[in-house]
């Protein structure tokens, strides 16, 4: 299962390896630099082609032709150290490389210092203040084309907001503003991005020039960091490649990782979805999904279709009398039960074969306020979405007092803010110091307070349980699925979770697997997707999974 590490976890794993004597920091840095160069050539094979030798410094960037040209921006820590390795390796291949250092050489940590010195043997390293692409005269050809920009200013050690003197988004923006056509690679993370939260730490009220901070490739080591997958991280990173630096082969770092295991955030992956051959429909559970009144039943019908397709044995829509006819005209495999007020609902719940409930989609606030307490009193696996969450905006504590561990809450950002206003305020505050409060922190805190699983939606859906277990369902990079942002897709997701709960999945596993399948369905259909299409992709997705 793919793990996402925080900066502190990565440090602990690396430090354990170094402390054991199984590897030195210098060796890890060399492997990191080599990994970056490898990743660059894998991403842009044309850059690996041989070219003429580098002209002698100074002023090699003035040359019109000849070697490939790179600018490497190094910072004051080990990220800068990785940058010096990359600069040296590129120079050894005949590249013309301009290296700039932000910070004083004698303050570099030992391994970075060693690589600074080795880098200087093959060419100069200039002070960062000299990096003034805004003053380079492109028009007169005084400065030649730059083929590659390497950002090695800050990695996982970024703790303070990036000052205006190193606003890379501005500087790199100049370099890439169409005058030159350089590929942009960030070592570990784009400098300025907080490794734990995926938020930029920038000390300014100004609009961040986001387009300019975006890289095409980020090369991380050992594991992706949480920040590669949440908030602004994916947009800034462009594409994230992970290179091994040999830590998985070392008993010391493996032991350190085992100790951290319960805290580590994971990327979602599907659980076993097969059905046993000897089963019958009741083995797969009976889900009940409550709808709203006449004219507002679409959301619940979407959820119900999702629950049925994902394999619940039976799915019943619980509708108020005024919507009975409307729903009856629309459904075939789904069943229908008349559910009016709290009393009638309680009577329906006497049927113990009903083992998963879904309340919220299109339900209406008033009906939700009446019926959610009845559902929760039944102590049945229950998904609360949409109106079932908003109904408790005025007194979230009232809801929390009734929730139990078989519940799943599925808020989007607005709904989360209604139930957890303090958590939303912390999450939405400008990030000044690292590690910044993240969507992972927010979801974990919400799950703990609610006492049940919380699935916080978005392209970076975060799912957490009260015990801290947490995963990210990332619709980014090769799983980018922007077509999922369409009305009703959240209703289908609620139905998917309900269906899996009916099938007997534990709440955390139901939420993770449903979120993962939701994105797979969107990818299976592709552009033009609307919510109705989502459940209909499940058969193809299951076939691909070998279910
Ligand atoms: N942890 C590991 O296992 C490995 C780490 N490596 C590299 O080392 C990096 C982490 O190195 P470090 O921990 O030295 O951290 P960084 O190199 O990311 O930055 C730390 C330095 O920047 C300063 N700093 C932080 N925020 C600042 C700000 N806003 N303005 C000015 N200065 C600021 C800190 O005081 C410190 O001097 C990783 O991202 C990775 O690139 C690699 O060499 C491979 C192995
Ligand atoms: N850009 C995006 N990429 C991938 N998934 C997205 C994106 N935006 C939204 N989603 C997903 O689409 C669904 C939207 O749900 P929600 O906000 O409840 O809206 P609705 O109820 O109208 O469907 C959620 O599952 C969310 O994770
Ligand atoms: K960097």
Automatic annotation (TrEMBL):
<dbReference type="Pfam" id="PF03853">
    <property type="entry name" value="YjeF_N"/>
</dbReference>
<dbReference type="InterPro" id="IPR029056">
    <property type="entry name" value="Ribokinase-like"/>
</dbReference>
<feature type="binding site">
    <location>
        <position position="151"/>
    </location>
    <ligand>
        <name>K(+)</name>
    </ligand>
</feature>
<dbReference type="InterPro" id="IPR030677">
    <property type="entry name" value="Nnr"/>
</dbReference>
<feature type="binding site">
    <location>
        <position position="491"/>
    </location>
    <ligand>
        <name>(6S)-NADPHX</name>
    </ligand>
</feature>
<feature type="binding site">
    <location>
        <begin position="78"/>
        <end position="82"/>
    </location>
    <ligand>
        <name>(6S)-NADPHX</name>
    </ligand>
</feature>
<keyword id="KW-0479">Metal-binding</keyword>
<keyword id="KW-0413">Isomerase</keyword>
<dbReference type="InterPro" id="IPR000631">
    <property type="entry name" value="CARKD"/>
</dbReference>
<comment type="similarity">
    <text>Belongs to the NnrD/CARKD family.</text>
</comment>
<comment type="subunit">
    <text>Homotetramer.</text>
</comment>
<comment type="function">
    <text>Bifunctional enzyme that catalyzes the epimerization of the S- and R-forms of NAD(P)HX and the dehydration of the S-form of NAD(P)HX at the expense of ADP, which is converted to AMP. This allows the repair of both epimers of NAD(P)HX, a damaged form of NAD(P)H that is a result of enzymatic or heat-dependent hydration.</text>
</comment>
<feature type="domain" description="YjeF C-terminal">
    <location>
        <begin position="264"/>
        <end position="545"/>
    </location>
</feature>
<keyword id="KW-0521">NADP</keyword>
<feature type="binding site">
    <location>
        <position position="412"/>
    </location>
    <ligand>
        <name>(6S)-NADPHX</name>
    </ligand>
</feature>
<protein>
    <recommendedName>
        <fullName>Bifunctional NAD(P)H-hydrate repair enzyme</fullName>
        <ecNumber>4.2.1.136</ecNumber>
        <ecNumber>5.1.99.6</ecNumber>
    </recommendedName>
</protein>
<dbReference type="InterPro" id="IPR036652">
    <property type="entry name" value="YjeF_N_dom_sf"/>
</dbReference>
<keyword id="KW-0630">Potassium</keyword>
<dbReference type="InterPro" id="IPR004443">
    <property type="entry name" value="YjeF_N_dom"/>
</dbReference>
<keyword id="KW-0547">Nucleotide-binding</keyword>
<keyword id="KW-0067">ATP-binding</keyword>
<dbReference type="Pfam" id="PF01256">
    <property type="entry name" value="Carb_kinase"/>
</dbReference>
<feature type="domain" description="YjeF N-terminal">
    <location>
        <begin position="10"/>
        <end position="253"/>
    </location>
</feature>
<feature type="binding site">
    <location>
        <position position="299"/>
    </location>
    <ligand>
        <name>(6S)-NADPHX</name>
    </ligand>
</feature>
<feature type="binding site">
    <location>
        <position position="188"/>
    </location>
    <ligand>
        <name>(6S)-NADPHX</name>
    </ligand>
</feature>
<keyword id="KW-0511">Multifunctional enzyme</keyword>
<comment type="function">
    <text>Catalyzes the dehydration of the S-form of NAD(P)HX at the expense of ADP, which is converted to AMP. Together with NAD(P)HX epimerase, which catalyzes the epimerization of the S- and R-forms, the enzyme allows the repair of both epimers of NAD(P)HX, a damaged form of NAD(P)H that is a result of enzymatic or heat-dependent hydration.</text>
</comment>
<feature type="binding site">
    <location>
        <position position="191"/>
    </location>
    <ligand>
        <name>K(+)</name>
    </ligand>
</feature>
<feature type="binding site">
    <location>
        <position position="362"/>
    </location>
    <ligand>
        <name>(6S)-NADPHX</name>
    </ligand>
</feature>
<dbReference type="InterPro" id="IPR017953">
    <property type="entry name" value="Carbohydrate_kinase_pred_CS"/>
</dbReference>
<feature type="binding site">
    <location>
        <position position="79"/>
    </location>
    <ligand>
        <name>K(+)</name>
    </ligand>
</feature>
<comment type="similarity">
    <text>In the N-terminal section; belongs to the NnrE/AIBP family.</text>
</comment>
<feature type="binding site">
    <location>
        <begin position="457"/>
        <end position="461"/>
    </location>
    <ligand>
        <name>AMP</name>
    </ligand>
</feature>
<keyword id="KW-0456">Lyase</keyword>
<feature type="binding site">
    <location>
        <position position="490"/>
    </location>
    <ligand>
        <name>AMP</name>
    </ligand>
</feature>
<feature type="binding site">
    <location>
        <begin position="155"/>
        <end position="161"/>
    </location>
    <ligand>
        <name>(6S)-NADPHX</name>
    </ligand>
</feature>
<keyword id="KW-0520">NAD</keyword>
